[in-house]
């Protein structure tokens, strides 16, 4: 496996920045499982996301080339969102991150608890 450089101008950091927002990966995954979808259907499938937050995520993902927005000339107007090739390709590293979280999640949460306890003891 080639060594990646994570300096400020490195493209490897782009992958982490693309999904830095917690909802973006949820939208990508939901579109992969159910897409293409209209915003209302997407929001219903995700659950717990406001219309504004979903709209912001859709704009971010579209600007990064991970989804496409298809507008239909209908009354009322209809818009569908679908993953692009780059969006579908992102599912592989997302699955790897999910496997990492399943394996190390308890360890990370325990470390966070220990850190918070140490901080509260210092106050």
Automatic annotation (TrEMBL):
Which Pfam families does the UniProt entry name for this protein?
HxlR (PF01638)
Provenance organism: Kitasatospora acidiphila
- Which keywords, in A-to-Z order, does the entry hold? DNA-binding, Transcription, Transcription regulation
Q: Which InterPro entries match?
A: HTH_HxlR, WH-like_DNA-bd_sf, WH_DNA-bd_sf
Ranges for domain HTH hxlR-type: 10-109
The yes or no answer to whether the keyword Endoplasmic reticulum is present is no
Q: Which GO terms describe its molecular function?
A: DNA binding
Give the protein name, as stated in the record: Helix-turn-helix transcriptional regulator
């Amino acid at each position: 496996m080639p060594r990646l450089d994570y300096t400020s101008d490195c493209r490897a950091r782009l992958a982490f920045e693309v999904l830095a927002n917690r909802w973006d990966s949820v939208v990508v995954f939901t579109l992969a499982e159910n897409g293409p979808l209209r915003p209302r259907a997407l929001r219903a499938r995700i659950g717990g996301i406001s219309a504004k937050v979903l709209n912001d995520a859709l704009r971010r993902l579209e600007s990064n080339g991970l989804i496409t927005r298809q507008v239909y000339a209908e009354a009322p107007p209809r818009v569908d969102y679908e993953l692009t090739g780059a969006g579908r390709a992102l599912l592989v590293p997302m699955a790897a991150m999910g496997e990492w979280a399943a394996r190390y999640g308890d360890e990370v949460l325990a470390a966070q608890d220990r850190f918070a306890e140490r901080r509260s003891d210092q106050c």
